[in-house]
Backbone:
């Protein structure tokens, strides 16, 4: 059943939201801001359930009334969700979706005293859609509550930001992520490894578990180790490039991110908290001059940008690996 206990962490934020719901002070437009996969969507759904519930208790949905069942089944007539539509080339929220929403909120709620609208990935609205939503928020249809979810708050129109209250969702700690992974049956060692590389996002930890993220990090580390020992050959590059040609751009982007974070840790592990805490003993054995590492990181950032172009992934990957090798 949908409830606050399903969320990992965020104790203070949950207490704040519950208080607002219990005291009937929930803002009419609110932004939940925070990294992907930290629980914003789940929190918004629990808010919706509590706001639509017939018998909420201290800002929590009762879990047994008809409303609660309908929200959990995503079929409550006064619960409306807008999500980005994904095509091969883009992922965005189109103006048509916001117009449909506008039409919906112009009507009175059906089952409940109010209506709750979640806009997931609000930064993915194009300008026309965002302006259309702005008009809707500016002239609030009575009884409608808007919850905008975003991993990139500054990507929202300033005018939208200024009309919404913002609630921040922090990243989760590795310990929180590991604990939940273990609860879900992941073995302890794997849970600890994933929790460290998930970057504070439980959603990302799950994705990494499903896509072999730990192996990807190992491939990144293996590449750096070989480069540092001058054992990275043109054959290695050709072989790796051929393998990467079959990857998605997202997967290559993840590989790049691993290389960047590992290089960062080699350079700064003594002064900053390392991203790859579990690998510190291995990383400390890598011998690369700091100046070279910084150049490698700069190169990685360039290739991250180039990934957005239409260039062939294989060519990009090979060019990147060659540059890394030559930088040594
Ligand atoms: Zn209920």
Residues:
């Amino acid at each position: 059943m949908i409830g606050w206990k399903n969320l990992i962490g965020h104790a203070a934020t949950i207490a704040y939201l519950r208080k607002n719901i219990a005291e009937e002070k929930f803002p009419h437009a609110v932004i939940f801001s925070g990294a992907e996969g930290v629980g914003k969507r789940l929190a918004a759904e629990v808010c919706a359930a509590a706001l639509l519930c017939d018998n909420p208790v201290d800002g929590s949905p009762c879990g047994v009334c008809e409303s609660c069942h309908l929200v959990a089944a995503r079929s409550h007539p006064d619960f409306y969700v807008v999500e980005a539509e994904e095509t091969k080339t883009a992922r965005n929220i189109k103006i048509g979706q916001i117009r449909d929403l506008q039409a919906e909120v112009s009507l009175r709620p059906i089952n409940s005293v109010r209506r709750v609208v979640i806009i997931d990935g609000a930064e993915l609205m194009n300008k026309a859609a965002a302006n259309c939503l702005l008009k809707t928020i500016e002239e609030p249809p009575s009884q409608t509550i808007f919850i905008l979810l975003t991993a990139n708050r500054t990507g929202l129109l300033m005018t939208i930001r200024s009309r919404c209250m913002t609630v921040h969702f922090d990243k989760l700690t590795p310990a929180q992520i590991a604990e939940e992974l273990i609860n879900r049956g992941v073995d302890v060692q794997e849970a600890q490894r994933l929790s460290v590389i998930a970057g504070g996002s439980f959603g990302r930890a799950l994705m990494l578990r499903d896509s072999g993220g730990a192996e990807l990090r190992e491939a990144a580390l293996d590449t750096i180790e070989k480069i540092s020992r001058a054992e990275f050959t043109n054959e290695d590059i050709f072989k790796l490039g051929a393998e990467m040609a079959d990857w998605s751009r997202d997967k290559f982007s993840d590989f790049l991110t691993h290389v960047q974070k590992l290089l960062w840790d080699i350079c700064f592990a003594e002064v900053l908290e390392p991203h790859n805490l579990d690998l510190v003993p291995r990383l400390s054995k890598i011998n690369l001059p700091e100046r070279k590492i910084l150049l490698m990181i700069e190169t990685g950032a360039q290739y991250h940008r180039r990934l957005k172009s239409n260039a062939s992934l294989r060519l990009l990957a090979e060019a990147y690996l060659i540059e890394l090798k030559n930088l040594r």
Observations:
- Residues 195 and 300 are 24 Å apart (CA to CA).
- The longest strand covers residues 144-150.
- The beta strands are 29-33, 79-83, 85-86, 91-92, 115-120, 144-150, 165-168.
